[in-house]
Design brief:
By secondary structure, the protein is an alpha+beta fold. The protein has a single domain, classed as Aminopeptidase. It is about 35% helix and about 30% strand. The chain has seven helices and nine strands, in the order H-E-E-E-H-E-H-H-E-E-E-H-E-H-E-H. Strand 5 and strand 6 form a beta hairpin. The longest helix has 15 residues. The chain is globular. It starts with a helix and ends in a 7-residue tail after the last helix.
Length: about 190
């Protein structure tokens, strides 16, 4: 199926995000309180993770196996990543908008984060792990990468306990729109 990639990117650039409903139809969503991952000193992670990071147990890659990351993110009992949304992510990937930030243990995919990069904004769509700490290491390394590329915003959309451990916080829509506008004025690039 052909998708209007630019119309989809325009939706994300206005602060909306796509999710599949129970009947697998796609809907645009927004939230009055948006969850952000800090790209400054507020970012934190469990101290036990520092040993894993110091061990260089995992290697990090971008887009080494995009489809496997999408599949890993969708592989849960209740998923909002329908088959159609997986196809949309693939179309966005082919057009240079969607990325998978991955951790590897040798030749085995350990975990990853699926997201969309627009200007100076990274929209984290989902994350998963197959090997303990795989997604946590991906999060730390992704934040380091976004900082090094001068990204303004890491939008995680909705809060959950896992994200709170990394210092995720919520902002009201007015602040989100200000940061969104600022991020769209940049061209940061992940690769």
């Amino acid at each position: 199926m052909d998708y209007d990639v630019l119309a989809i990117i325009e939706g994300y650039a206005q602060g909306y995000f796509l999710m599949a409903t129970e009947d697998e139809s796609l809907q645009w969503y927004s939230s009055s309180d948006r969850t952000l991952i800090p790209l400054d000193a507020r970012f934190r992670y469990p101290k036990s993770l520092q040993r894993v990071l110091n061990s260089d147990k995992f290697t990090v890659a971008i887009n080494r196996d995009f489809k496997a990351v999408v599949k890993g993110c969708a592989n849960r009992e209740n998923t909002w990543i329908s088959k159609e949304l997986q196809e949309i992510y693939w179309a966005l990937y082919l057009n240079g908008w969607a990325y998978s930030f991955e951790t590897w243990l040798g030749d085995e995919l350990a975990g990853g984060i699926l997201g969309i990069a627009i200007g100076g904004m990274f929209i984290g769509e989902s994350m998963f792990y197959r090997i303990p700490d795989g997604s946590k290491v991906a999060m730390v390394k992704l934040v380091e990468k976004l900082r090094s590329r001068s990204f303004v915003l890491f939008d995680a959309q909705m809060m959950n306990p896992h994200l709170e451990r990394f210092g995720a916080y919520q902002v009201a829509d007015l602040e989100y729109q200000r940061l969104l506008k600022q991020s769209l004025q940049r061209q940061c690039g992940l690769i």
